[in-house]
Amino acid sequence: MSTVVVFSLLIGSLLGGRFRIFILPPAIVLGAAILGVISAWQGNSSAHSVVMIVVFAAMLQLGYLCGALLVRVRASAYRGKAAPSFDSRGFG
């Protein structure tokens, strides 16, 4: 179970740093399908599979949030003073 938590946090942070929020539902569905197949192949109970999928979905969203916040903080830290535009000099 801890492997699922760690990997879903990592995947969520990667998705949060790159994509918008519309990537979460397909990622959750795809991950839930993969986890369901793996869990059935290993012979786990359905309750264990459901708990693992819920934990995966929650940690994926948490990782997404952390990744998106990290990108926003880094972007604001690198943003300096705005460069002057040509419009402000009175051309025209």
Taken as a percent bin, the fraction of beta residues is under 5%
* Count of extended strands: 0
Number of helical regions: 3
Averaged pLDDT: 86
Helix/strand-derived category reads mainly alpha
For the CA atoms, what is the radius of gyration? 20 Å
Topology:
Layout: H1 2-18, H2 24-42, H3 46-78
Helix pairs in contact: 1-3, 2-3
Quickly list its features.
mainly alpha
Provide structural commentary.
With 92 residues, the protein is an all-alpha fold. The chain has helices at 2-18, 24-42, 46-78. The mean pLDDT is 86.
Task: Describe this structure in a few short sentences.
The protein has 92 residues and is an all-alpha fold. The protein has helices at 2-18, 24-42, 46-78. The radius of gyration is 20 Å and the shape is elongated.
